[in-house]
Design brief:
Layout (H helix, E strand, L loop, with lengths): L1 E5 L11 H6 L1 H14 L3 H7 L2 H4 L2 H21 L5 H4 L2 E4 L3 H8 L5 H18 L5 E7 L3 H12 L4 E8 L2 E7 H10 L7 E4 L12 H12 L10 E2 L6 E2 L2 H13 L4 H10 L4 E5 L4 H8 L4 E5 L2 H10 L1
Parallel strand pairs: 1-2, 1-9, 2-7, 9-10
Antiparallel strand pairs: 3-5, 3-6, 4-5, 7-8
Helix pairs in contact: 2-5, 2-8, 5-7, 5-8, 8-11, 9-10, 11-12
């Protein structure tokens, strides 16, 4: 069995998508449709920068999605590989869950782009700059990370945001609490702790205003049953019912990204092959979570051609 997986924030970089667009009409169509949906030259920003503008959450989220869907469209239209024929499940890390839903036909491309713009804006607006923070705890599993977060909280929000793999957990919350967590992390068994260069504390209770905004935005959106089940971030379980998908996307804004559990659940369900489209981060996580699984990442035209041969 096989799962197609889609990256989250951090996969953006200036130049992303430009070589693919130069080589493929299918990729150009995706970038043009996203530009039209957002009434913005997002692809120009992706290709040329400036980097500080691309890093803004409201730009990075639709950009990462567009890049991954462009890879998928090239795979489908020029490689002759249909997701429904080659994938048993899809999943995505944080914003990548929207990409996964788009890839599986649950939400159309233009709507996905607009939702991610709304999500990015709402997440940025939820907490004033400087009041929240996130940190990566390296060499710490979920149990250690939760203990560190609990010890550092001191009445402030400090919680696990992303359970990425057995050796990397991200915490999120009030800046002072996260800074305390970084200071005490080694004492609690983590190898290293570092503050992340993010503009807001994602996936924690401080994001509730953004969750409210997404509930309102998603209420007016058509969601179809996906072509294959989607493993949801907050449940680490497959879902196909549009009403449940809608509710879980709202919950995901403040909820923990259970990526490690999602990969393990897919592996236990029989998935031996993971195909990451549009990034090169999740494949490494998969290998650390399920060493017996295979993981392939496709970003460039060369990657896509190799993937077509492999599939």
């Amino acid at each position: 069995m096989r799962a197609f997986i889609f990256p989250g924030q951090g996969s953006q970089s200036v130049g992303m998508g430009s070589a693919l667009a130069a080589a493929s009409p299918a990729a150009r169509e995706v970038f043009q449709e996203v530009d039209e949906a957002l009434a913005q030259s997002l692809f120009k920003l992706m290709a040329e920068g400036p980097e500080d503008q691309l890093l803004l959450t409201a730009n990075a989220q639709p950009a990462i999605m567009a890049n991954a869907i462009a890879v998928l469209r090239v795979l489908e239209k020029e490689g002759g590989v249909r997701l429904a024929d080659k994938a048993d499940f899809v999943a995505g890390h944080s914003l990548g869950e929207y990409t996964a839903l788009c890839a599986a036909g649950a939400i159309d491309l233009a709507t996905t782009a607009r939702l991610l713009r709304t999500r990015g804006d709402a997440m940025q607006a939820a907490v004033p700059v400087g009041q929240g923070a996130m940190a990566a705890l390296l060499g710490a599993d979920l149990v250690k990370a939760q203990a560190i977060a609990d010890a550092a909280a001191e009445g402030e929000v400090c919680t696990v945001a992303n359970d990425n793999d057995p050796s990397q957990v991200v915490i999120s919350g009030a800046r002072a609490a996260i800074e305390r967590a970084v200071e005490i992390a080694k004492d609690h068994g983590a190898k290293r702790a570092l503050l992340l260069p993010v503009s807001a504390p994602f996936h924690c209770a401080m994001m509730q205003p953004a969750a409210d905004a997404m509930e309102k935005a998603l209420a007016g959106v058509a969601i179809e049953a996906p072509l294959v089940p989607v493993y949801a971030n907050v449940t680490a379980a497959p879902v196909s019912d549009p009403a449940i998908i809608r509710a879980l996307l709202v919950e995901q804004v403040t909820g923990m990204v259970r990526w490690r559990e999602s990969v393990l659940a897919m592996f236990d369900a029989g998935v031996g092959d993971f195909v990451e489209l549009g990034g090169k981060v999740l494949g490494g996580m998969v290998k650390r979570i399920a060493p017996d699984a295979s993981a392939i990442s496709a970003v460039t035209m060369h990657d896509i051609e190799a993937l077509v041969r492999a599939l």
